[in-house]
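Researcher: We're teaching a course module on how sequence relates to structure. For the next exercise, students receive a sequence and then see the predicted structure as tokens, so they can try to spot secondary structure elements on their own. Here is the exercise chain.
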Amino acid sequence: MGEFIEVAGADAVKDGGMIKVNAAGKDLLLARAGDRYYAADDRCPHLGGSLSQGTLEGSVVTCPKHGSQFDLTDGHMIRWTAWTGFKQSMARTLKSPRDITTYEVKVEGGKVFVARP
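Model: And here is the predicted structure for the students to work with:
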């Protein structure tokens, strides 16, 4: 098992909420859905939006810049942008769709720990 880094108190993130945390010098998104916590790179691979400033529905985070969506359970991309038609085609041509990196999370003693990025 790898090293874990304490990033927040378990009560720092409300159910359905997200915050930006730092682990070993890397900005991460920490999200909570029910009793489940998720951690992922905070930077959207589309155009660099801060995912922690977006919205969360269940385990799906939506980037505030262009509506890119990712499932925090494994980081897979659901939607590259909220654009349609020509704009969507151009977005895919200029920057290939990519998943986000997620990190293992554990909660112990009222604290949230994330696997070292």
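Model: If you want an answer key for the exercise: The two ends are 13 Å apart (CA to CA). The mean pLDDT is 90.
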